[in-house]
Each structure stands twice: as structure tokens, then as C-alpha cells.
Design goal:
Length: about 250
Amino acid sequence: MQRDVSSCNTYNYGDAHYWDARYVQDALSFDWYQRYSSLRPFVRSFVPTSSRVLMVGCGNSLMSEDMVKDGYEDIMNVDISSVAIEMMQTKYASVPQLKFMQMDVRDMSYFEDDSFDTVIDKGTLDSLMCGNDASLSASRMLGEVSRLIKPGGTYFLITYGDPKVRMPHLNPSAYNWKISLYIIPRPGFRKAGDCSSSSSKSCLEAIPLTSEGMLPHDYVLEDPDSHFIYICNKTDEEGGAKIPPYPLMEDVL
């Protein structure tokens, strides 16, 4: 469970100073990996619009704004960068469904246990995996995420990390997560059978994993730079997890 060296550059993405400087230099909205339009079938299937949502590492993304436009009622956004949070507080001052706080995801003790129905992470765990003390940072963040999610709630992780590098972090029994995996091509990738094709819903089918939580040995990614969506459902007190049937409902497309 080491730092994601192969996918990182020389920047320390886990450091607030880096992000403050970046947002001062470039204040334009930016979405990591995927826009909401691509993620909507998954979000609408796993996250009811009445959910209390925590968006970790919100940056200056349009994701939360787009979710509010789609009917979501309560989204708390946190980011380590005070520059980003001040920008977003000003931008969305008249949108009561959106709240913003400067916060390090490795210590979210401001919130009580079981405070949220859903935690959405689009690249924040990846940022920590590119920083110093990556494994410790990831463990601290995921421990906080697990603490904050209500029983039956969901950690919705969008990442570049395949199961070989993400499952060791997501699988500790203390989290009580039942995990399903979806794979989505990067934006702009075009190949027969991808999510851009109206004749195929293959991206909306959960990937069958091995007993160790890995991809089958003969599984081939259509797009080698695909993004992975881990749906981590927190087991409720009765030992069951509230996960919808598969494949995902097509009426949310």
C-alpha cells in the first residue's frame, strides 16, 4: 500500500499550499476525471435526491452545482484549500442547497458520527496517494469517511486506481463496506460498446470481481485509461447493505 508513484508527478497533491497557489493562478471551474453528465446514471441510482451529501475535495468543480440543478437538496462541500472555499462561498452565496467549509479530509472531527447519507470523492483519495505519507493519509481519510457515513449509506469513489491499488485501502473490515465496481472510459474515448453508444449499457453493469476483490485475470479494459467507480455501501446494523439491483436502472440516463 505505497504511494501511487507511477501516476504522480513532482507536485505534492496532498498539500494545502499547492492547491492554494493553483487556485490563485487558475480560478476557472475544473472537473477532475468526469463531468456530472457522465456520472449521473450512477449518482441517481445510488444517491437519492433527499440524501445529505458530503463532497470531499470539492475544489472549484461544477459537480455540486449540477447535482443541485438535478434536484439534490443538501450538499456539504469541503476542501483543504481556503482559496477554493472562499471562491465557492462567494459564487454560490445565493444557493442554499450548497454549503462550503475549509477542511482537511484526514480530520473531519467537526462532523459527528453518521452525519451523511453519501460521501462523494472525485479524485481526493488519489491526491492523497500522490502526497507524502500516502498510506497513512489514505487510512486517516477513509477512517473519517466510514465514521461519517450512516449505516446503509454510500462512499462513492471515482478514481484512476484499479482494484490492485485501491482494494487494499478500501477492504479493511472496520469500514463494514460492501463494494461493487463499475468502469467508465475517460471523456472523449470512443469505441463500440462504450457509454456514448445508445445501443449499449455495458458501463452500467457491475464488474464481477474475484473473491479477493480483484478484476478477473482475463478482463481487458477497452480504454486503458478508464476511470473506476467504487460503490462502497456501509453495512447496516442488521448486517445487510442497501444496494440497488444490477444493472443500473436505464431510466436515469
